[in-house]
Specification:
This protein has about 500 residues and is mainly alpha-helical. Helices cover about 70% and strands about 5% of the residues. The protein has a four-stranded antiparallel sheet with strand order 2-3-1-4. Its main location: membrane.
Length: about 500
Amino acid sequence: MQDKTEGLKRISLRDVLFVIFSKLHVFLGIYLTLVLTTAALAFLLPPVYEVSGHVLVKPFLEPHLKLQAPLATNIRANPVTPQDINSEVNLLKSPQLLKTVVERLGLDRPEPASTWLGRLVKGVESGMKHLLVSLGLVVEVKPEDRAILELQNQLNIRPITLSNLIEISLKGPSPEKITKIVNTLLENYVDFHIQVYRVQGAKDFYAQQAEIFHRQLKETEADLKKFKNQYGVIDLTAQNEANVELLRTLRESLALTEAQIRERQLKVGVQSRNLARTGEPGALTKEVQSAILEELVRVLGPLLVERERLAIHYQKSSAKYRAVDRQVQEIKEAYQKQVRELLKGAQLDLEGLKNYADTIRGHIKKLEGQSLMLSQKQVDYERLLRDLKQNEKNYLLYLNKTEEARIEEQQEANRVSNVTVTTWAQVPSIPVFPKRFLMLLLAGSLGLLVALAGAFFAYYVDHTIKTPSDLGRYAGLPVFATIDLVERRTE
C-alpha cells in the first residue's frame, strides 16, 4: 500500500504530458472521433420539436347546488382530489379519444418518404413485415390500431405537482403536425369529458316522473276535496273531541235519568200495591201529594172526629150519624180518586222518563256510531293528507331534478365543464434536439477526459521500453549511462 502511494506521488504533470505525447495518436484519434461524431450528429440529424398544452381541473360543483350557483355567493365546491386528476389523465390517454384524433388527422395513412434513403428503408421494413406475417411470426395490425398505439406511446401526459394542471406534451420532427395533434386532442378532450360525465336521457326521465307525480298530486287533491265535501270535514280532531264531550254529558244524563226511573218505580210501585191491597194509599210520597189531597185530609180529620163523637151519642142508623158518615165516605172516595189520578200521572211521568232515557240512549248510540265513523274517516283523511304531502314532495323533487338536468344540458351545449384548456399548443421555432452548441461543448470537454483515459490505457498496456527507468524496472539491471538521440546533420 505504501509502494502504491509512493508511485502515485511520483506522477507529475511531466509524466502526464509524457504519456499524452507518447500516445498522441491514440489521444487525438479518440478526441477527434468523439468530437467529429457528435458534430455530425448535431448537424446531420433532423431536428426534433416539442409542444405542450395544459388542462386545468376545476373544483366540481354538486348537482343540487348548480341551481343556486348563479345566485349564491358563498357556495363551496368539492376540492379537486388526486383521484380526480388521475381520472382526467386516463381520459386523455383513452383509446376512444385517441381514435378520434387519428381519424380527424388521418394519422393512420402512411406518409411518403421525402428522400430515396427513406423510401428504401420503408420498402425494406414493408418487405420484412410481410415476410414475418406470412411466416406467422407476427400478427398483422390494422393501421388505425398501430397509429393509436404509437400516439399513445409518444404522448407524455402527466399532472403538474402541487397544482390542478395536467400537461400534455408531444415530440416530433414536424412542428406543425405535432401542434395540430396536441390541439386536436385538447379540443376533442373537452367534448369527450362532457360526454363521459353526461347522464343520458336524464331530463326526459325526470320530466316524465315529474308529470306522473303532478298527475297523482292533482288526483289526491281532488279526492281530498271530495272527501271533505262528502263528510263535511272541517277538523276531524275537533269534531271527535266535541263528540266525546257530548257523549260524556249524555251518559251522565242517562245515568241520572235511570236513577230517577228506579226511584220512581220503587215508590209508585209501593203506593200502587197498597192501594190495590187495602184500598188505602198508605203513607203518601211526594210523587202523589197535591194541594187537593192536603185539603181533603184537612177536611176529613174533623169529620172523622165528629163521626166518632156521634157514634157515642147516637145510633149508626141515625140521620146525623149517616149524614156525617156519608160525608166521610164521599171525602174518602174523592181522596182515593185523586190518589189514583196522581198515581196515573206519576206512571205517565215514569213513562216519560223512560222515553227520555230511550231517547238519550239513541243519541248515545248514534254518537258512538258517528265517533267510530269519524275515527275511520280520520284514518282515511290522514292517509289522503299523507299521500298528498308525499306526492307533492316527489313532484317538487323531480321538478328540481328536471331543472338541474336542463341546466346540465345547457352547460354541455355551451361546453361548460369542470375542465378547461388553459394553454394551447403553439408551433415551436426552436428544436429541443439536437442542441448543437451544448452537444459540441460536452463533446469537447468529455472528449478530453475520454481521450486522456484512452491514452493512459494504451500507455499502460504497451510493454515496450520507452525510458531508462523502464529498462531498470523490467530487466532488473542498473543503468549507468544513456545516449541521447542525435539527429543526423546533412551538409
